[in-house]
Amino acid sequence: MTSINTSVPSPVHVAIIMDGNGRWAKGRGWARLKGHEAGAESVRSALESARTHGIKYLTLYAFSIENWKRPKDEVSGLMKLLLRFMKRYEKDLHEKKIRLRIMGRKSDLPEDVRATLTKIEDGTAHYAEHTLIVALSYGGRTEIATAARTLAEKVKTGELKAEAIDEDALSRAMYLPDVPDPDLIIRTSGEERLSNFLLWQCAYSEFYFTPVLWPDFREKEFTEAIEAYKRRVRRYGGV
Asked: pLDDT digits over 21-37, tens only?
C-alpha cells in the first residue's frame, strides 16, 4: 500500500498544458476556434482557483512554437482571441493584484499583441503575491538552446569561464530564472506527454493527467488535481 504524506502543502507553482479545445468543438460540430473561445473561460476559472488554493505562480501553455504550423485562419483567430481576452481581463489582473509575465519568443507575435502584452506586463510588474505566466511561441528545446547560446557568448567574450557552466548557470540563463520550477504539471484531454513544455524545469515536477477537455476544466477539476498532488510523496531523488 502506498504511503500518503498528508503534510504536503499546496504547490507554489502549477503549470498547465491546456489541451482539448479542438476536440471539444469538433464533438459539438463547431469550428475549432469555438473551442478556443470556450477554453478562455477555463483560463479565468484556473486563475481564480489558483488564488483560492494560495498558489503563487500559475503557468499556462497557450501557444507553442510548433503551433505556428496550424492553418493560418486558426492562428489568426487565436491571436485575435488572445488580444481580446487580455484587454478584457487587464482590469481584473489589477483588481486582484496579479502579475502577468510572458514566456517565449515574444518577437514572433503580431505587433499589436506584443504591444498589449508588454503594456500589461509593465503595468502589473509591481504585484508580488500572484503571478500568471503565459507561454506564447514557446518551446522547451528552444529555451534550452537559447540559454546555451547565451552562455556560449559569455564564454566567447571572456565574461564567463567554460568550467563555470553548471546546472545553476544554465538555469539562470532561462527565460524566467527567478521563477521556481513547477511543483505540479497538469495536462488535460487524456494525453500523457509534455509536448516540449518546460523540459528543463520539470526535472522533479509531479504530473497529473486528466481526460477532461480544457473547456470543461473548471474549479472542481482544478481542486481534484491539487488534492491528488497533496497525496504524493516528493523525494527529489532521496528515500
From this structure: 999 999 999 999 999 99
